[in-house]
Each structure stands twice: as structure tokens, then as C-alpha cells.
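Field: COMPLEX_INPUT
Field: COMPONENT_COUNT = two
Field: RESIDUE_TOTAL = 610
Field: MODE = joint
Values follow.
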Amino acid sequence: MSPRPGSGAAAIGMLATVLLATACSAGPSPAATADSANVIVAVGAENQYANVISQIGGKYVQATAVESNPNTDPHTFEASPSVASAIGRAQLIVQNGVGYDAFMNKIEGATPNPARKVIIVQSLLGLPDSTPNPHLWYKPSTMPAVAKALAGDLSALQPAHAAYFRARQRAFDRSLRPWYRAIAQFRTAFPGTPVATTEPVGDYMLQAAGTRNLTPFSFQSDIMNGVDPAPQDVALQDSFFSGHKVKAFVYNQQVTDSLTQSFLGAARRYGIPVVGVYETMPAHYDYQSWMLAEVQALRRAVTSRISTEKL
Amino acid sequence: MTHLLRMIVEPGFFGNAPVRVALLAGGVVALVSGVVGMFTVLRGQAFAGHALADIGATGGSGAFLAGINPLWGFVGIGVVAAGIMEMIGIRRPRGRDVATGIVLGAGLGLAALFLYWDATFSNTTGATISVLFGSMFVISGSTAGVIVVFSLLALTVVGLLYRPLLLSSVSTDMATVRGVPVRITGLLYLLAMAVAVSLAALTIGAILSTALLVGPAATALRLTSKTGLAVLWSGLIGIAATWLGILLAYDSFYWPPAQHGWPVSFFVVTLVFVFYLLAQLPAVGRLSGARARRARNGG
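Field: COMPLEX_OUTPUT
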């Protein structure tokens, strides 16, 4: 049976028709006006931001998070259609920036909405794109700035409830004080504590607590970016454990592979306490209690050599 | 002299634990790839070898997902794929590339799914780069042990099949007449090749392991026409490329951009290519010499 030229052309024509029909039916869906129940629809790219949105917005906001699975690495997250539709509906978005959640920009570009307010934490803090460490939520000064911007944007969306949002923002700022106190106390009690890390996840907090992170940044960024670190760095990192040169090993629970697990094994073997840190907020915490728990875990590691591998 | 040596071999090279494991595992894998690859070239099965290597990405990414050592994923999927290829007709020269291509396409489709899941549902950031381009410097000592065992297995199979393989590689008909079980020989060889590329997937990556399979063998066949000698050369060239590549990767830590070594698989594969080009030189010389003679005679 030899293919007839006529049938080929007809088939191509049919295919073209099908494609055209699909393209037409995939046109813009009706824009959902989500203030039906007078509730602002908001999205946090990571669940720690969604948590702060809820804390400031209270009963007038319904916040969902794109990233909340503690078993995934947000750096390599790929968005699905359901995420795209949630972002398309949102009136208010908080995202980290510094390339950490670049998928958000792509989806926002694909679902344009001039009325949508987007808070990019990187811009809020005035950080350049070249900022090496994107894990901004571990920085003590980050969330008060986010809360302030949120109160402003929420008030613009619902001016009638501006006083409510401002009051909740002040309450949020107050609730961070136990964390700040814990950091300050650690800093004065254990100045220059040497620590090792796998990734720069908790580095902003470690800096605030006055620790000395001995792990070279090249190693941390290699692990963060999913490339194999240089053998020199691996040997150096090993020597921190075998030589008992560090008082704690700050371990990213969300980015693990055979290499980071081998370091975890070395830390256990040499009795170096482990402190687990996270890319997204772990379950059963809110932002403040999570951050406080991290500092307390670090303190336990240094004072009583107790590991807190998982919060 | 010592100074020069220190410049080439950066201090701490041999004392570095990841380097020592890489030298052992990488060297053994290169030897196996070189020896097994000789028959890949003689039998014209480079595409099958490449397909088996690429399909390793399916097993490797699946292993990351399941949380087991990628080695088992690479080897497991390689053996399964080799079996399927043989089943749907790799022994017939006409249908061979089609059978290989079909299995390759299906395998890579699964790899796409597994790598997506690795990124979205599982905390394995490095999976993609590690599966595709290998991670010679993060092989654990116990994995290196398993690599050596599998290598010995593949070498034994090829060693036992040496005569029948050579015969059936030259002429299937002649081999059949001489009583060689051509089909079972072909299947066993395919399995040995699957193991070889799977091990190379661990060191230089699933999509680069073809280079170690085909490159050293092709280079060796340029140097000698004696098959036995060529097998030896092929293994040695593979080892040389791997060890030099490890050395350069270690040294590259001190090159710009500072404090980030260049990937070791890049060096290994590039050296394999350079060796092949160098082996062409005598032939090019003979050719230009002949041209010059012709030009003289004619003029």
C-alpha cells in the first residue's frame, strides 16, 4: 500500500483544523472577580510568606501557598496549571525574588492583571539580582518590611479595613521579639561559634547570631545549585567533622543527596550536633515560632550537644 | 623539576579522599568501557551502546525518586533495555536501528517524567545534572566496591566470549557455520555493554558514557590492526583520559571562576576526542605525503 499524495494533504488539513479549534477554545478564561465575599484572594510563593499574609490580613484575606511541600526544593520547582490558575485569580502576591521563585514571574506574565499587587521581597529590601543568598526569610529584618508592605497593599485593596490591617501588622512586629531576643542572647553568650553548613539556607540567621560559618560559600552554592562540589571543598568539609572544628552542623532538610547524607553521617559519627533548616515553613509552625525554634535548636546544639535534625 | 610537578599536580591531590575514589572507580570503569567498546565498534553497535547509555538516565532518575543508590537504577534499566532490544529484533541488521530507537524513545520519555518528579515531589535537586553528567567526585567507597564487582563481571563475560564474539562480529554466517550460538552471544554481549555504559553513567554521566565506549576503541583501531593489541590500547586510552581528566578537574579548582572546579566529565570526554584526533595524524601525514609524491610525479 503506497500512500496517496491526496490523502496526505487531506490529513494535514484536518490536523490544521483541529489545532485551530484548540487554539480558539483556549482563549482567555473569564477573569474571576474574587471579592464575592469581600475576601482578598492572595498567594504566597512560599508558605512562610502566605503565613505572614494571613497574619496581617486576618479574616479579610484568603491566602494560599504555592510552595509548602517540605520534600521539594523550591529552587527547581516547576509550576503546574492549577498553580497558574491560582496566581491568575490572586489580587495580592508575595514572592521572594533573587531568582528563587522565577516561575512566579513567568506565570504572572502569562496571566496579566494590572490591578494585581505583587510584593517582591528582594525589591522591598533593595537587594541586587546578584545577591548570592536568596533565603531572605531567615534574615531578621525581612518580615517586618514584608508586613509593612502587606498592610499598605491590603489597605489599598480594602480602605475600610486599613486600621484593622495596621493593628495586625503592629501585633506581628511585636510577636517577633522573642526571636530577636533569642538571637541577641546567643550572640552575646556564644560569640563566633564555628559552624558548618550544606547550603546557605540559614546563613542570614547564622550571621545575625554571630556564628562563623566555616563552610566555603562555593561549596554551599554548589549544593544549592545541584552541581557536584569540588573535591577540595568536600575534603575541607570532611575535616570540620573529623577534626571537631565546628560546634554544629546546619543541615538543609529540603535538599539532600548522597553527598549531604554522607556529611550527615560524618556529623553523627563524630558527635557534631545537627540543626535542620528549611526552605519552606515546616508543619505545625507559624513564621515566628519556626524562627524561634531554629535559634533554640542552635542553642541546644551548642550548650548541650543535642541534635534537632527535624523541627 | 619538583616545582614543575607541583604545578601540574596540585598539592593534596593524592591525599584527597574523593580523588582517590574517583581514580579507582573512574579507572576501572574506563578499562571496562574500553574493552567492551572495542566490540561495539567492530560490530557496528555504537547506536545501541549510545541508546543503552541514554536509557540509563531513566533508571538513574527513577533511583533518585525511590531513594536508592543510582547505581542500581543505571544497571537495572540497562539490563532490562538490552533484553527488550534483543526481543524486538536487534540481531537483524535491518531492523536494528529501529528496535534501538523505539526502546530509546520510550526510555527517555520515562526519564522526563522521573526527572520532573525528582524536581517537584522529592528533595533531590542535583538529580538532573548528576544523572546526565555524572558525579565522579561524590562516589562513596561502598559504591566503588560494587562498581569493581560489576566491572569484573562484564570483563569476564567479554573474556569468555572473546573468540565467538570476534568471529560473529566479522561474519555472522561464518560464525553460525562454525557452531557459534550467535543469538545468545549477541545477547550476552549486549548485557555486558549495558553494564559497561551503566557504570560509566555513574562516573561521567548517562549521556556522555558513549564517549568512553566508542572513543578509546576507535582510537585504538587507528593505532593497530591486531585486535588483541587494540583491546589493550583501548582500555589504556580510556584510563589515561579518565585519570588525566580527574587531575585537570582537580587543578581547575584554582582556575577562574575561582573556587569552582570545572566538571570532570568535560575533561574526560574532551581528552577522548583529542586522543582520537591525534591518532588520525599519521594517516593525514601519509595522505599528504602521497599527494606530494603524486604532485611531484605528475609535475
